[in-house]
Amino acid sequence: MQAIRQVRLPHFRHPRRLAGLGVAVGFVICWSSGFVGSRLAVAVDSPVLSLYAWRFALATLLAAIWAGLTLGRRRLDHRALGHEALVGSLTVGGYLLAMLLAVESGVDAGVAALIGALQPLAATLMASRLLGERPRTVQWLGLAGATLGAGLSVLDDLRGAGGAPLWAYGLPLLAVLAVSLGSVLSAGRPATQPMAARLTSQLAAATLIFALAALVRGDGLPLPPVSAPSLTALAWLIALATFGGYGFFNASLQRFGVSQSAALVALTPATTLAATLMLFGEWPGSLGAIGMLLGIVGAGAALASRRPQGRGAGGHDATARPVEQREARRRVRPSALPTRRG
Asked: How far apart are CA 77 and CA 324, in angstroms?
């Protein structure tokens, strides 16, 4: 009998790199879908703030069902979930509320995304101050290029027929500050709770913010109309922008840290402009095209450089576990006492 030859199946040498690539690509695509979803929501014959409140209420219900099915009777840390609610109120509620009001005021969705590209620079500045991340010079130059690209795109939209008032372009800047602060708060603390519980807490906080905003503005909370545009907008926003966008957002922060995740955000304007071109036929002007190119080159330069160093640099899977590391060192050397020099 002939010996049976062993067949070697192909395998990947670097599964963690492939997983990281999947997280990065998924984050860019799903995060970009939120800007397109805002255009779809504005077109629905319903108060847009109440529509978003119902969107997050449904998403919270689905996330709670997911948590109930996967967690069972596992005890959760309510203090940690409160921290996640604070993060969600900034990265989900505050960020999207400001962006949505900007689009509603006439700011083009692609330009709103390009202003949102300022978030890498803001997040990196905050992370360098609060988390001790030390980005390389190439990263700073790349993020500065992305920021310049955002400015050129805003100028291009102001010269066009968008018709948005100047103050409306300040709303995406408020969104940038909110999501940057939330990113730093999230990456500066180890994730001790399951993703389902964390996402449920964050979405519940966003539901409360949009419900309060709708009530304050006098829109009320009417049920969304049962129509094709309404159902399309809700499905898009819940599936892609909510679970996809913020699921990958949390995964990116934990895997890559603030600075690398922020660099990925700089890739979303080009993705958003491509989507708005295909879906709505919105062509960028010459300055907008240059700004998009600068954003891509700047983000590429920031991502191609080495990871910044510091306790929030590599995500919680690598170096961003300051609390756990200190506790581990205490267990190894319980009797070690600090020494004084001089």
From this structure: 16
